[in-house]
Write a structure and sequence with these properties.
alpha+beta, 4-stranded mixed β-sheet, 8 helices, about 25% strand, globular
């Protein structure tokens, strides 16, 4: 998934029967294996070209369904059902254009952006829970079938796959039944496991988007809570004094320029990933207003002019440490 993943688990010293070192190791390896299953279906850069998402791209425009595993089907189905055009899993061709631009450090030709944009759109992606064997490429697994209607299309699940994979790893650790606590971190997609025995809350740093070596505050997290951040400081290049990052606005084909960073807290890792992308691409105040209508999430938004907006449920859970440079404007 293009990032470092770490899983830390600890035995609860208050438990009646503490797990052995081997039991802890087995639980962690099983959770990594679960994440690998997600990656095997969603990694569009997999060198062997064996990932399900790559098979879907290979069949684009042929009029045939590609049968995929349950993880990829669930992700595409959930994004399609939510239906917000700002989170579009068909942006593969557009992402390829910007990946090349980042490699060379030069802006892409507008004609290339337009051509890639023409091969995107959720209206060109069809899902089928029950694919007839004679109409499908491959065997029918637990998921279903996906069809991209135009040649040259491809899927990119970068907006949701990491958060979902973290959630699946957490579920695996929970299923072990061991009296453990810990934390999962997939490149900033984080989820806590269990309650710290000393009763203190989990604490994670909030990265300063203007200097990612610095922390602008600490967020107090509850047991079983997830967090994800979308920011313009993670994958980017600069041209003519402007930072061009990897979070693309589907209607324009260009990086969204409303915010520096958006952090989302939720009970579910998929929700944190999905909404951090969505809110990042909205104007700051509109993003905050939307978050306030969604009881399943809380957010911190850092706008392009370095204003900080915090949703009501997080105001008492952040210890700010920044030394100037930002204005806290949230009511």
């Amino acid at each position: 998934m293009g990032t470092m993943v770490s899983i830390e688990v600890y035995a609860d010293p208050k438990a009646d029967k503490a797990p052995t070192q081997n039991q802890l190791k087995e639980a962690v390896l099983a959770s990594f294996d679960r994440m690998e299953r997600v990656s095997a279906q969603t990694d569009r850069y997999e060198a062997s070209r064996a990932a399900d998402v790559q098979k879907v791209a290979a069949a684009a425009g042929t009029g045939r369904w590609t049968t995929v595993g349950d993880d990829l089907f669930y992700l595409t189905d959930q994004v399609q059902k939510r239906g917000n055009p700002l989170v579009d899993p068909t942006l593969g061709p557009l992402i390829d254009v910007w990946d090349k631009a980042r490699e060379t450090g030069t802006l892409p030709d507008p004609a290339d952006v337009a051509a890639a944009l023409a091969r995107t759109g959720m209206d060109k992606m069809a899902l089928n829970h029950e694919v007839p064997a004679e109409a499908a490429v491959g065997q029918i697994p637990n998921g279903g079938g996906i069809m991209l209607t135009e040649a040259g299309m491809s899927l990119d699940l970068g907006a949701v796959a990491k958060g979902y994979a973290v959630e699946k790893a957490w579920e695996s650790l929970q299923a072990s039944g061991l009296p453990i606590y810990g934390i999962i971190n997939a490149g900033g997609n984080i989820k806590t496991l269990g309650q710290k025995p000393d009763g203190t809350m989990w604490k994670i740093g909030i990265t300063d988007p203007t200097d990612k070596t610095r922390c602008m505050g600490n967020l107090l997290m509850l047991p079983g809570e997830a967090v994800a951040t979308s920011g313009d400081y993670q994958k980017y290049f600069e041209a003519e004094g402007i930072r061009y990052h990897h979070l693309l606005e589907p209607s324009t084909g260009y990086p969204g320029m409303e915010n520096h960073a958006v952090l989302v807290v939720a009970a579910n890792g998929f929700d944190t990933d999905y909404y951090s992308t969505l809110l990042f691409l909205l104007p700051s105040e509109e993003a905050l207003n939307l978050a306030e209508t969604l009881p399943e999430i809380e957010t911190v938004i850092v706008s392009r002019d370095n204003k900080i907006y915090v949703s009501s449920g997080l105001k008492s859970r952040i210890e700010w440490t920044y030394q100037g440079g930002f204005t806290l404007v949230t009511p």
